[in-house]
């Protein structure tokens, strides 16, 4: 994370078919992407009912906090097997988690299928709910009680998502998630998304997480008490097997597509006061030409996170097509008709055996880099 200052590398892989429901969709893998201060407590003067008593100053933030604790559902302190509110259950012999979700109208795009950002948000939500069900959750963003005592938070260092089919609006899905060890100081989390009705696998994902000190913003070793908390939940199971992780090369100023002056908004921040990782994906995809995105869907995404991004940072997004990775042989014909009644690919693709001339139209994968732009003051 600290090895590449001011850089957030990523890598995307696109398939040639736009349909999320196509059983024989050809997937082309050619690309790689490397990858607050709170308000001061307000003081409120409250008049006593007894007029002879002096006016007192009360910490409004403390009062609001006490009120919230009274009206909100308390975080479980013991392991829960069933959560009817989130439609979640503990599986995998007591250590895995399964949640039933329905794709909402605000989670789909123009083609009525879930966006990649919606899928990533669902991965994050089910991961946090898994910790909630474990009884280990403090009041932080997925942090355990031991992590809270050591002032530690989780940060993702690498993530890979493979999408076979995109769920449509109204689709009922089951999302399984579980955790395992990753080296001495990291944790691996995996997910499997499938149709509740048919068992069809929509997507699978894996990620690596490390701990950061919330005050110093530096990576930290895993304390023994935290290891003792989470290690009973570890299982030997992988949604995506990586024999040797793909190396993502860094882009420079010669990249073909560049978007500059991207500024985070307050709505982009998460509970750890840094830009949420899903926002990075949106910045990345915005550099890809619209005409390409209209005829293709993301099939494989690899993200590497090198450092965090804050509210005051200005980000530059670089994108480079990977033309040398095209697969030009052995590609099956894609005959899917899109939800709007029109072909989801160009007529050149559907006009003969295979992709024909469409392969010469452009690349099917892109390498991306997000980097924080230094201000003139910082350069001095």
Oligomer: single chain
| Overall morphology | globular
Q: Taking all residues together, what is the mean pLDDT? A: 77
Number of helical stretches of at least 4 residues: 8
Using only CA atoms, what is the Rg?
Answer: 23 Å
Low-confidence stretches: 1-7, 16-58, 325-360, 376-380
What proportion of the residues is helical, as a percent range?
A: 10-25%
Largest sheet: 13 strands, antiparallel
Report the end-to-end length measured between terminal Cα atoms.
24 Å
SSE sequence, one letter per element = EEEHEEEHHEEEEEHEHHEEHEH
Organism: Sesamum angolense
GO molecular function, one term: acyl carrier activity
Pfam families: Acyl-ACP_TE (PF01643), Acyl-ACP_TE_C (PF20791)
Family: Belongs to the acyl-ACP thioesterase family.
Report on the structure:
The chain is α+β, with helices and mostly antiparallel strands. Helices cover 17% and strands 28% of the residues. The chain contains 8 helices and 15 strands. Strands 1, 4, 5, 6, 7, 8, 9, 10, 11, 12, 13, 14 and 15 form a 13-stranded antiparallel β-sheet that branches. A hairpin with a 4-residue loop joins strand 5 and strand 6. The longest helix is centred in the N-terminal third of the chain and has 19 residues. The radius of gyration is 23 Å and the shape is globular. 33% of the residues are buried. The N terminus and C terminus are likely disordered.
């Amino acid at each position: 994370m600290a090895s590449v200052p001011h850089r957030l590398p990523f890598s995307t892989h696109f398939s040639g078919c736009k349909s999320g429901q196509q059983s024989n969709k050809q997937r082309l893998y050619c690309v790689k992407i490397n990858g607050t201060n709170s308000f001061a407590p307000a003081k409120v003067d409250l008049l006593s009912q007894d007029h002879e008593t002096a006016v007192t100053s009360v910490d409004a933030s403390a009062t609001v906090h006490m009120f919230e604790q009274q009206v909100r559902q308390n975080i479980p302190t013991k392991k829960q097997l069933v959560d009817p509110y989130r439609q979640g259950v503990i599986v995998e012999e007591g250590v895995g988690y399964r949640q039933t979700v329905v794709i909402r109208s605000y989670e789909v795009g123009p083609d009525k299928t879930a966006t990649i950002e919606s899928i990533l948000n669902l991965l994050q939500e089910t991961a946090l709910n898994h910790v909630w069900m474990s009884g280990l959750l403090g009041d932080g963003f997925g942090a355990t009680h031991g992590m809270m005592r050591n002032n530690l938070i989780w940060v993702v260092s690498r993530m890979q998502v493979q999408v076979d089919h995109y769920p449509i609006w109204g689709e009922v899905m089951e999302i399984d998630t579980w955790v395992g060890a990753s080296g001495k100081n990291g944790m691996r989390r995996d997910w499997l998304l499938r149709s509740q009705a048919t068992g069809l696998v929509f997507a699978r994902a894996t990620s690596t997480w490390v701990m950061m000190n919330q005050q110093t913003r530096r990576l930290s070793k895993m304390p023994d008490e935290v290891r003792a908390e989470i290690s009973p939940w570890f299982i030997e199971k992988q949604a995506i097997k990586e024999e040797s992780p793909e190396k993502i090369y860094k882009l420079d100023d010669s990249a073909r597509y560049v978007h500059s002056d991207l500024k985070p908004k307050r709505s982009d921040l998460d509970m750890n006061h840094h830009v949420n990782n899903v926002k990075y994906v949106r910045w990345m995809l915005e550099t890809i030409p619209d005409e390409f995105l209209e005829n293709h869907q993301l099939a494989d995404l690899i993200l590497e996170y090198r450092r965090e991004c804050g509210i005051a940072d200005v980000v530059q997004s670089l994108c480079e097509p990977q033309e040398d990775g095209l697969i030009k042989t052995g590609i099956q014909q894609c005959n899917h008709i899109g939800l709007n009644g029109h072909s989801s690919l160009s007529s050149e693709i559907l006009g003969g055996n295979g992709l024909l001339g469409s392969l010469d139209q452009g690349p099917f994968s892109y390498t991306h880099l997000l980097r924080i732009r230094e201000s003139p003051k910082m350069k001095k």
